[in-house]
């Protein structure tokens, strides 16, 4: 389908392109009859003004680039929605992309949105600095990181979660229910400073409650088979209470345990980061350490808007995690 252009509008109205432009942008002197002719032509042809051309005449495009790792992941879907909703209410449109946990895809998206003359970007970065991230920051456009930091780019404000409150509450709950050993499945920590921080905080708190000899930590890759082998080793070590630092691992574990006829909340107790809708639909419901994703998204978007408005004190913010106990944690 061919797009209707301003030349088509001018031809239909029987006037010059420059006159149509002045009528649409309300610049210069235009007679009521000419303006009416332009409006009729626009309506008849269903003309949509070219936002790129408008952006070239303006300092603002009212568009923001938003990059998340995986829109299929319920946590990142909720995060993207909260950010997009906050920006929309402020009059901004959002270009959303997914990196698929790939620095190459992240950089391709950043390069693409820079060609669109965006007003700035909100990004869940892939672990560390890259050429495209440095290029983006070199434009001096407002940039906010959410959920994660990027190594080597400490000057970018970050809105993320503080894992300590939620982890501490979960571990104390597990102890009160009589468990003497606890395991932690940290996820693909090599690619994520946030997952590394969660694991570090878990080790410190769990060692203080259970003793280091009763604390077991394993990492995984992005593969389901990796999660399966970790579960097998944990169970072989006599660990019947597990915390998952990476929610996709917990989703895999729920399925794997069901296939093995292992009863969650009876034979094994589990807690996962991220309050996914799926965890409230399973039977039993899964106990979670909520990162307060709505608040992270809203705060990240608002921090971005404050930077656009010229706020010079754009500081990083942390949102405390909250433990929500459910039936997936039973008694030892």
TrEMBL record:
Source organism's superkingdom?
A: Bacteria
Has the keyword RNA-binding been applied to this entry? no
What InterPro entries has UniProt attached to this entry? Answer: HTH_LacI, LacI/GalR-like_sensor, Lambda_DNA-bd_dom_sf, Peripla_BP_I
What keyword terms does UniProt attach to this protein?
Answer: DNA-binding, Repressor, Transcription, Transcription regulation
Instruction: Domain (HTH lacI-type): give its ranges.
Output: 4-58
Entry-linked SUPFAM superfamilies? lambda repressor-like DNA-binding domains (SSF47413), Periplasmic binding protein-like I (SSF53822)
One example of the protein's molecular function in GO is: transcription cis-regulatory region binding
Q: Does the keyword Repressor apply?
A: yes
Task: Provide the protein name.
Answer: LacI family transcriptional regulator
Q: What is the organism of origin for this protein?
A: Bifidobacterium subtile
